[in-house]
């Protein structure tokens, strides 16, 4: 039995990237089953998967005593490459190319205003919270502000600006909390905010921005609205990744002076 495990471990380690895809695939399958059977779709499978990932990162660090979470386990080292900046940014670009600009422009001025307002307000709120908790430098404030936008914008912004891994992790946590809140509160608030037609869904996606949160929340409200909200939410992610390391950082650095 021990010899069989050693052989299997050697194979998993040799093909670590393939192992990582299989490992993440299993986690996603479990996450979406939990979402369907336990939360009845109220919490999106992707949010559950992120929670499991954060838990496994902690477990991996405790088991190995390392600093890279689950990737410190040799046969799961490929998770570090799979979740690294190269494939992450590739996924973002691929998603952005799937959006048609002419469809977004049909929302008119209200859609554009909601998108810009949503992105900038998230950065401002996140930066203020970061400042209140003692992160007074522009890089940390911008990175955590990016996390308040989405858990994708935070790491992209932090990597571009050279933020510490601790700050980047905080930005991911902030984005995850926002995603879960949007998922769970959207069905409750839909009636009161008039979220019952494609136009309002487009504006909602532009204001909230977190694609998984918006998609999960709209699916629980009216699944016919999901494509509209997800489309502007995707634009939101791209705009956040563009403005975070550039305009937002320059403005914050001018304000805080570092």
Keywords:
mainly alpha; 2 domains; 13 helices; 258 residues
Structure description:
This protein has 13 helices and no strands. With 258 residues, the protein is mostly helical. It has two domains: 83 residues, no CATH class; 174 residues, no CATH class. Helix 2 crosses helix 3, helix 7 runs parallel beside helix 11 and helix 8 packs antiparallel against helix 9. The chain is globular.
What is the secondary structure topology, with strand pairs?
Blueprint: H1 2-14, H2 16-37, H3 45-64, H4 78-82, H5 85-97, H6 101-105, H7 108-132, H8 138-149, H9 153-161, H10 165-193, H11 198-208, H12 211-222, H13 226-256
Helix pairs in contact: 2-3, 5-13, 7-8, 7-11, 7-13, 8-9, 8-10, 8-13, 9-10, 9-13, 10-12, 11-12, 11-13, 12-13
Quick recap:
This protein has 258 residues and is mainly alpha-helical. Helices cover 80% and strands 0% of the residues. The chain has two domains: 1-83, no CATH class; 85-258, no CATH class.
Instruction: Report the strand count.
Output: 0
The biggest beta sheet is recorded as: none
Strand content: under 5%
Instruction: Report low-confidence residues grouped into runs of 5 or more.
Output: none
Radius of gyration: 19 Å
Helical/strand content category: mainly alpha
SSE run: HHHHHHHHHHHHH
Q: How confident overall, as mean pLDDT?
A: 81
Count of runs of 4 or more consecutive helical residues: 13
Q: What is the count of structural domains? A: 2
Described by the principal axes of the CA atoms, the overall outline is globular
End-to-end Cα distance:
58 Å
Helix content: over 70%
